[in-house]
Amino acid sequence: MTAWLMRKLDNFFAALLAAGAGMLFSQTQAFLAAYLQRLGGHLDEAGVQLERVHAKAGAYAELSEASRLAVETELAARVGELQSAFAAISNADAFLRPAVFLRHVEPDIAFAALRHFTPALPLDPPGLVFTVVGMGLALLAWEVIKLPLAVLLAPPERRDDPPPRRRKSGNGGNGQKARREPALAPPPPAPKPAPRPKPDPLAQADPEALRAALKAVLAETPRKTPPDGPSLAPRPKAPPREP
Questions:
Q1: Per-residue pLDDT band at 243 (split at 50, 70, 90)
Q2: 207: closest CA among 218, 217, 215, 199?
Q3: Exposure of 136 by Cβ count < 10 A (0-12 exposed, 13-18 middle, 19+ buried)?
Q4: In this structure, is the dihedral angle defined by the CA atoms of residues 148, 149, 151 and 152, taken in order, positive or negative?
Q5: What residues make up the domain containing 17?
């Protein structure tokens, strides 16, 4: 019962992890699209701010020349960084885009995209491939996780009892001879099967045919008279002698 329950729990957790990982990995392309949308918004906003600094519009007109140049340099670097990240992620191959995203990720933009992310149904080939990859990685991780648990929960090995030690007679012993275990007699040989009786041809023949053949043999055989010879009558006994 315990082994059956453990197998069922193993299958349940493996299926649960595979389904969860497959659903998570299937949203990779949709999340990257949402991230690129927010990254493009930050890029447009930084570009607008840079143009305002160049035009000395609004609050930037009241800044000194040194402060305005420092802000302009900082905004230009920010715009260049966002442009390179956006171009690298958007131009990357669909299967390599997650790796490029991890290299150019902006944590603040990524968390904002995750908070407002809406899951989508993946029907494109990259989404299906990422789903299968996620399920495979989840099953592999489950096998690695349950390996130490299987070792800890495994039943102890059954050890055979050691054979009894024989006492040796001598100075160190008590003088008793070691008992010999009774030897088992070999099993008796199996009886040989009795030979089958041969069929009697006379028993299988027709009685009428046998009777007719016997009459024919007796009719053809001539009768012989016994020759004259000594009589077969017993001789009389001799009288006993007188003493």
A1: very low
A2: 215
A3: middle
A4: positive
A5: 1-27+125-154
